[in-house]
Amino acid sequence: MSALTSPSTGETLTWSDDDFEPDGRYLLDNSRLLGPIMLMPAVIYIIGLVGVPFALAIAYAFSDVTVGDQSIDWVGLRNFRDVWGNDTFQRALRNSFMFAIVSQVIVIILANMLAMVLSANFHGKRIVRFLVLLPWTTPIALAVIGWLWTLDNVYSPIDAALRELGLLGPGTMFGPGKNMLWLAKPDLAQLSVLTVHVWRTLPLATVILLAGLAAIPQDVKDAADVDGASFWRQFFYIRVPLLIPIMTVAILYGIVFTFTDMTVVYILTRGGPIDNTQVLASWAFFTGVEASNLAHGAAIALFLFPLLVVVALIMLRVAKRAETV
């Protein structure tokens, strides 16, 4: 209960908080209902876009559904056992880990270098930042088609440049032949896929680390300069420890994007040669859609879920520990 005395009339006015509570006649005046109402469109969108397909994938993975027979008959764990015993699945699983881990190690090293360069003041910095961000803004399918032309087994401009330099041909360090055959040889095909993944995820990691560098207090940098700390001492003892949480976020995003991506492999190599570049996402598509075995395709796709959950938990735990240090 509150009271106020009027200075002119001397009358005392009293009121309580209940007098200002909404009476429920106006929906937007009810704070308890307003929040859920505002969140409802996002919840519906997430359920429709993610929840329904995920539930359908679980139902397919434990059934014998195919494109020709879409009746869902329970088969238990049979699909998972069949998939796990497949040699192509084992190779796709190894490739998924290899592409995700190796590419992100390279990305985090290059992103630190780029972030340090782009955080400095120099003429044309905005243009350079735009060029660095360009791979991330380009649609992935269009970008991979460009890489497909660049790595073409016959008309590759990289091969033409190597020929002009005298590095490609009989008797050179590359051995006999007139073409590198980037997408036809297993090792070079894996290197090509790895290169595209690095090229694609490097801009995002660079932007994240740039934000982290900007968040380092200026007085910390000034104190290090006054103490005479060298560039490498400042980098390893100041910047890296302070950037570990933000680097963890960048690595997490990169691993998720790389692990779940099938566009690069599908357009560039279609899993070849001889499944040497096959990954779980592309193998799930080839098995479930192109081979019409929806049950096996769903089972392959579900192997991605626990792996990504484990990766996310580990990375977030590392980030939380780094913040408390």
Question: Care to give the gist of this entry?
Answer:
The protein has 13 helices and two strands. With 325 residues, the chain is mainly alpha-helical.
Identify the notable features of this structure and list them briefly.
MetI-like fold; 13 helices; 325 residues; two-stranded antiparallel sheet; mainly alpha
Backbone shape:
flat
Judged by helices, strands and strand pairing, the structural class is mainly alpha
The helix fraction, in percent, is: 55-70%
Total strands: 2
Low-confidence stretches: none
- At CATH level 2, the architecture is Orthogonal Bundle
CATH class identity: Mainly Alpha
Number of helices: 13
Largest sheet: 2 strands, antiparallel
Overall pLDDT metric: 83
- Rounded to the nearest angstrom, the radius of gyration is 28 Å
Beta fraction: under 5%
Quickly count the domains.
1
* CATH topology grouping: MetI-like fold
Oligomer: single chain
State the end-to-end CA separation.
48 Å
For the largest sheet, list the strands in their spatial order.
1-2
Helix and strand string, N-terminal first? EEHHHHHHHHHHHHH
The CATH homologous superfamily is termed MetI-like
